[in-house]
Design brief:
Nucleoside Triphosphate Pyrophosphohydrolase; 12-stranded mixed beta sheet; alpha+beta; 3-stranded antiparallel beta sheet; hydrolase; NUDIX_hydrolase-like_dom_sf; 23% helix; 10 helices; 372 residues; 2 domains; NUDIX hydrolase
């Protein structure tokens, strides 16, 4: 039975970009995917994973038999698809691998049926189109611009300032990879004999994957640096009648909108304003109970924090609160906001405010605090 609010749920995954000493990137062969067998190492989030970073490390341990040294988050790509739930796909940089380290791979043959080192141009052609756009964006953008904010593999937000649209490479899939790498089996005569068929059909497999939820919130401040907070109606409170304050925003309707669109909609519904979200300031992963027994939610929550900029008296005086959701609004100094917000909510708000003052992409947070 599908839950009534299943439209707010999405999948999550994490992959790893392994460069080598020659500037090439590692791709792997998925023996169970006959249509799009070329991928980067990684896989789906598990509820026991405390963060996407942990998902990435676990997947490499299971697939290739070693523990990677992960670097910064390269990008977060939110994709919508008519044939599966939306997915929040994370890509992490890893330290370059030496030939000796690559030679020591002990792959799980059910998960990895070969691998190859490809130049950025070769990877752009071999990877399926959406993944190709994602990986190519990470390889083309300056590292200092990361993490990149992507929608369906396309740059949005601050990424538009550092990436110009480039030519779309022709998709070739695995053609010619066996000539480039002795670790990639020839497939001209069909799949290698050792390949096992997928254990489930695609629809059954997707139906069994765990889901997360997402929220989009916006940070507005006035000219004095005070933060705009709103108070929820009592029946929405997690702790009973105690006043519950938060940043403007709410749940992403994951099956029909992207996070920026959700932020725009929530501000319009809650405050009566029509405004475009600014820079993505922070990404906060809140683990569910399977990863953190003390969590107040069953499944993980991914929070996007966008910059709403500085607002003046005229705009503030035009606020029209959504009466079915909110009771009041208030401009708060950092000390006042810290007293009103939950510890995790204040920590992510403080991280977002700090991100305003530096270039680059959003802060990567777990439970409100820096990841890693």
């Amino acid at each position: 039975m599908v839950a009534e609010d299943s439209g707010q749920e999405l999948l999550a995954a994490a992959g790893v970009l392994f460069p080598d000493e020659r500037g090439r990137v590692l791709v792997v062969r998925l023996p169970y995917d006959r249509r799009h067998p070329v991928a980067v190492p990684g896989g789906g989030w598990d509820p026991q994973d405390g963060s996407p970073r942990r998902t990435a490390a676990r997947e490499i341990e299971e697939e290739l038999g070693f523990t990677p040294r992960l670097g910064p988050l390269a990008c977060l790509d939110w994709t919508l698809d008519d044939h599966r739930p939306p997915i929040a796909a994370h890509l992490y940089w890893a330290d370059p691998l030496t030939p000796e380290q690559a030679a020591a791979f002990t792959p799980d043959r059910a998960e990895v049926g070969g691998w190859a080192w490809l130049t950025p141009e070769q990877a752009g052609r071999a990877l399926p189109p959406r993944l190709s756009r994602r990986v190519t964006a990470c390889l083309r953008a300056p590292r200092a611009a990361g993490p990149l904010e992507l929608e369906d593999g396309h740059p949005v937000g601050h990424v538009l300032d550092v990436l110009t649209p480039g030519p779309v490479p022709e998709y070739t899939g695995p053609v010619g990879l066996s000539e480039l790498s002795a670790r990639w089996p020839p497939t001209a005569g069909g799949p290698p004999a050792g390949d096992a068929p997928p254990p489930l059909d695609r629809d059954a497999y997707i139906a069994g994957l765990p889901r997360i939820r997402a929220k989009a919130r916006t940070v507005f401040t006035d000219r004095e640096g005070r933060v705009l907070l709103v108070r929820l109606r009592p029946w929405d409170l997690p702790g009973g009648e105690v006043p519950y304050w938060t940043l403007p925003g709410g749940g992403v309707e994951a099956d029909r909108e992207l996070p920026r669109a959700a932020a725009r909609r929530e501000v319009r519904e809650e405050l009566g304003w029509s405004c475009e979200p600014g820079r993505l300031l922070a990404l906060d992963w809140m683990p569910g109970r399977a990863a953190d027994p003390a969590a107040d939610r069953e499944t993980a929550l991914l929070v996007y924090l966008f910059d709403g900029g500085t607002v003046g008296e005229e705009l503030l005086s035009s606020i029209v609160l959504a009466p079915e959701e909110l009771v009041e609004w208030r401009l708060c100094s950092p000390a006042e906001a810290r007293a009103l917000l939950t510890p995790a909510s204040w920590a992510r708000t403080a991280a977002a405010l700090a991100a305003r003052n530096r270039p680059g992409g959003p802060a990567e947070l777990v439970g409100g605090y820096p990841a890693g």
